[in-house]
Amino acid sequence: MDIKINKRFEYKDLPDMKNILSDVDKIASNITIGKTLFFKEHGVKSEAEYKRLAIKQGKISKHSHVGWNSWEETAKNIKYIYNELKNRGSYITRFGFILDWIMGVPEEHRHKLPKGTGLILETPEEWELLGQIVPVQPHLSDHMIGSPNALQNTIQGLKAGATSIGNVSHYFTYEYPGVELERERTISSLKAFNLMGKFEGTIIHSNLDDGFGNQFEDLVNLTGWAMMERYLVEELLGARMTFSYGNLFSDPIGRIIFHTTMESLNTKKTPGTMIFGNTVDYGLDYNRNFGALSSFSLADAIFQRHMPTGHAVASVPVSEASRIPTPDEIVDGHLCVDMMIEKSKFMEPYMNWDKIESEKNVYCACGKVFFERMMNGLYDLGVDIEHAGEVFAALKFIGPKQLEKYFGVGQKEKDRLGKRIPVRPTDMIKNLQKKKEKSLAKIKNIDGALNGKKVIVAATDIHDYGKEIAKSILQKAGAVVFDLRTYVTTNEIVETLMETEARAIVISTYNGIALTYAKELLKKLEESNLEAKIVMGGLLNENQDGGSLAIDVTDQIKKLNINCDNNMETLVDTVSNIYSN
């Protein structure tokens, strides 16, 4: 087994788990979980308690992700959303606050990262107010547990009354370029997970799509991965967890099958947080996006009718793919979801639940094989599989591609370079293939068009779907592609340019730092006397002049002589022109 472990610290040097967790009881003794307005209104002490009551009463919860760049703007908007929905006969159960990535690192390191478009909590008072603006329960996930600042964020979140905190999956995938605290991050996360387990009713949340789930090709392997996360958090660290998914699931029946599978693993019957909306079907046509919203929310509501788990149905505004949504667009989305929830009761009795159960059994059986192979493989590699820190770190350093290649369930195929044929391919793989084929069909004379031309591809954040399509097109044209993957720093790009002498850089960005990143990269290129050309695509937006809403910065980036066509069909010609000039 030729597995490469890309260690960022020596996990065998971690203290034993008893020492790592030795002060968690003391930390817990100084924490009182805050009473949110939501708790007071419903007479409960945790979201889990509310969800259990709601399940008995047949209520389906609803969710929205929110987070403008300032606390004042966020507070104003959530108050408006709550009141507007109430006035129009609707409701919302929980707000997931989208926190900026600088919240994921200790305060003394935040100057090393450019501010993104998310919410930044500047003071203890702002933390405390999370659940005190309107009676809607706050949920915390982005850059919380799993980040280098995991423990401190969890303490503040619990004090604010947030009893569902994530994100386990972020430990494996979210990065903070220029802030190398991997050992500290591991220890902080272990303590935070264990701390959550000290309080009745708390839920640790994991959105599988934010972790290795967006890089696995097979849903049965993703099922085995969920078993691994549950083993780490529940069996080794004594907490309770639940899974979210949905961003990358466009097949409505596939969503129901996967949710049935996840619930079968939930032996402790922990209530769910929410099911995310399918954003891969969202484009720039808002009317078409309403169709995607209706499709996934109807499926999610049908499942909650059949097997109530407490997961809230999420409303994703139709403008999500192009910019930060307005409060009115969030309201509009909920009114659409209300109708889907209402109509779901007529459809649930006519679903073929036996067939769905049969598919679930395939996922679980194959997933167990993947889980056991990973456990055996880690043991053979010398990892202490009862030391949560060693397992977390080793899995991250091995990475999803190797895990699936060496321990996956599907059969190997020679022409797939050791990759496996998925037993149940993810929607992401199927959709990427369709989008790639659609783009390739429109590119004339692509074969050999870029023979030998060197191109660097990179993503500034976790969203690498665009990068993967661009990479496939460039390789089809014969280019030599250097894939720097996700969370790539400008220094890494410059170093790769020096090593490869490439002249074209293709960058995908979705985390609200497009203009800052472009300027920084141009500055580094000039300082290094490099003349490479840049192509940027994705969501080219950023907060400007202290504003709380990210705006499109495409024109400003174009003025820097950077290509922003955002068009896969012209990518080959663009790179060809770079090399011919």
TrEMBL record:
* Domain annotation B12-binding: ranges: 450-581
| Annotated InterPro entries | Cobalamin-bd, Cobalamin-bd_sf
Listed SUPFAM superfamilies: Cobalamin (vitamin B12)-binding domain (SSF52242)
GO MF, any single term: cobalamin binding
Record's Pfam families? B12-binding
- The protein depicted here goes by the name Methylmalonyl-CoA mutase, C-terminal domain/subunit (Cobalamin-binding)
Record lineage: Bacteria, Bacillati, Bacillota, Clostridia, Peptostreptococcales
